[in-house]
Automatic annotation (TrEMBL):
PANTHER family: INNER MEMBRANE PROTEIN YEBZ
Record key words, sorted: Cell inner membrane, Cell membrane, Copper, Membrane, Transmembrane, Transmembrane helix
Family under the similarity heading: Belongs to the CopD family.
Pfam families registered for this protein in UniProt: CopD (PF05425)
Task of the protein: Involved in copper resistance.
Name under which the protein is recorded: Copper resistance protein D
Compartments where found: Cell inner membrane; Cell membrane
Major subcellular location class: membrane
Keyword DNA damage: no
Highest taxon of source: Bacteria
Annotated organism of origin: Alteromonas profundi
Keyword presence, Magnesium: no
GO annotation (BP), single: copper ion transport
Domain Copper resistance protein D: 202-300
Amino acid sequence: MLPEWWTVSLVFVKLLVYLGMMGIMGSCAILLLLKDSKRGVAVNAHQSWQLITLSYAFRLSIVGFFSSVAGFFLQTGYMAEQGLTGMFSPFMMEMIWRSQVGTIATIRAVIFVLFGLLAWFLLQKLKRGDGLVSFKVLLGSSVIFLLPLALTFSLTGHASQFVTFGEIQIVIHSLIGLTWVGSLYPLITACKLLNHSDLALIMKRYGNIAIVFVFILVTVGVVMLIQLLDSPSELFFSEYGLAFLSKLFAVALILTLAAGHKLFWVPRLAYDKNVCGKLRKSINFELIIGLIILSLTALLTSALSPNL
């Protein structure tokens, strides 16, 4: 296998891992948001939304597990430099297993399996009509699964260039970013399931919370960028800088869309029934941009370096 194909494969697998992580983070966050709004949402719609959201998280946790395993073997093959057979080199596998790559793959794979089992159990409970998932279960799941997943970012990518404070920054940045993108699909389904007044209640609460976290996300991102680059000229005269500029443009675009939702579409939900469809299309576009941002992040942390 040619070197560039190894790189493409590693970037693609990392993107799939991101999808698994965003499924867990986004679904937990959005279900907590809905659970807190129980009195304002019809029970049937509430149960349907939990069912769809948990199914979405369950499927992405499966994607995340197999991608984590595949990423380990791809890293092994890349380091062995012996073609496809190098992926199963006992010596290289042991070396990668003992490294941070092995630690990260193990932690993520275990979390994906455990969350997948929990999601499957909760799905069966909902399908039997045994009642809604409790707030305590959702909150406990969020703490148990989200934080360890986010902490793995302190061991990978360019986080190793930072001191402890920098590691905290990248954990916060990753947690908020993946949760934001991961919550968009459940919001799209909410536009289909909930009536316009209930949807307005959910979207208003979501927007109020998002303002705080988006501010933190952008602030931390800017600080990390300053730490990574030796000079501003690297943004324009290096492959890493140009890729980062593309990501910044996509971030600016998704922030513009999010602002439009909060300031224009959501206030009209309470009295204009036709807004639901338009809001759903806009969130669809926001999700596409979010996936582009995750793709560029996978590229930046797998194939490019700020120092090249």
